[in-house]
Amino acid sequence: MMPQESLVSPPRLAAWLIDLFTPNEQTESILGDLLEEFSGLASKSGPASASRGYWRQSAKTIVHLVGLGFRVAPWSIVGAVLVAYLLLVFGASLPEEVIVRLIHFRRHHVTPYYNQTQLATYVLWFSTSILIGRLLMSLIIGCLVALAAKGREMAATMMLGLFSGASVGVFLLVGVLKRPQNPYLLPFLFDQFAHSIAIVVGGIVIRESRSSMSRRTSGRLKRI
Asked: What is the pTM of this model?
């Protein structure tokens, strides 16, 4: 019968986060070292203590990897983030323009009449479509900056998300000082948070795609 500690696995979420931030060529060695440390701590102090230790080491490793990425290639990351930020700024109105043009095109063929209920539904549809369009645009820009920052996808997309959020935070602070009771400030804050998350998700998509391709290539080479 196998010892109980050998059946214990490290936290999957922590291991997944490590995999996201680690260059493909270092993933196996870093995860292996963390797993060895986890197994030793689990046999001495129990699974709960080992899991807490694994989370601590994972956080330290991620911080180290992000810092290392900026030290190794600072200008490529900063350049990709700045270009992506400009795309976000100048393309912010693009989804709304596309939807408005589609509506104008439809009006050339049909002249609709809306009652009050239909008008409310139409406004909800219009605002929701714009929100979804802007989120998709943020997701695509996150994918683009991740493609440009090969091996440092998460560092670049997180920097872009934080930079975008910080710039909007300054705007919100000025707005609060000028008009504290503005009812649109809080929804705008949540909207920007969603866009920052979409940018990071774009980085995750590209990182996971590259990791999957790397694992398949490594598997084929081992079989050969």
From this structure: 0.77
